[in-house]
Write a structure and sequence with these properties.
About 45% of the residues lie in helices and about 25% in strands. It contains six helices and eleven strands. It is rod-shaped, with a radius of gyration of 44 Å. The two termini are about 55 Å apart.
Length: about 325
Amino acid sequence: MNDRGIPVAMLLALALALALALAGCSRQAPQALGTLEWDRVTVPAPVSERIVRLDVREGQQVAAGASLMQLEPAQTRSQLDALQARVEQSDAALLELRHGPRVEDIDQARAALAAAQAQAREAQAYHARLQPLGRRQLVAPAELDRALAAARSAQAQVRLAAAVLDERLRGSRSEQLLQGEAALAAARATATAQSVLLDKLTLVAPRAGRVDSLPYKLGDQPGAGAPLVVLLVGEAPYARVYLPQALRNRLAVGDRLRVQIQPAGQVFDGRVRMIRSDPVFTPYFALTGQDAERLSYLAEISLGKEAAALPVGAPVQVLADAAAGTR
């Protein structure tokens, strides 16, 4: 006991409780900080061609469909001309299949059949004349064999000429017509795709917005897929903030919050439109216990049209009185 009769253990307990209370009061309230952002739309290069014209400048407001820049169209246009010629060729080939053989081709096949039949009759007659001489051994057996082979060959030529005539009389097969139609459709599709690519060489704004960045200049030849124009789109910006664990558990998509431009600037009403389910960074020591408060979650808060004039990248903070959220 001390000189006043109070136990020392009780004094130590009171001192410890007072120290913990002071530490709790001094702990800084969780803060959600971030920056002001706009939705971005990137217009990529459809092909690797040189930039021959720039129609906008950075910071310019453009309407949907407005021309942004022009890429060199000469090579793409030449390829389109070649593909259109292939379409005409396929169309003519299909038309020929539909019409079938010409009358002159059929007459030629008939004449070839008649000639083959005449040769076959002559070869057969020659073989018939040699047969009696062969039985009396007045001609060599080899000569008789040659005459027989010539007669059979002539008969085969007759059958071949007859088959050619039948083919021309029947016209094109249905399978050939289907192949011709498919070839024409493929040629047309390829030409259409090339025509679309040619139109894409004149880059236009997909949405109304403000030109934020032009990474390439007049005369540059960026690679295919390179970002040529970056647009800021939408009616108003949004706040991209990082929520600490203490605030993450109390907020949900759709909650209303108040966002203040830093330092101590104007205050705007907003609504939470997105909260990531995974923390931005998870150190190994921040999974359990009090260190879990170090976790932070990326969130986006939509603002009204009154914030449309604010600059991109301005620092913002979610006000402490909005921590609970209002749906």
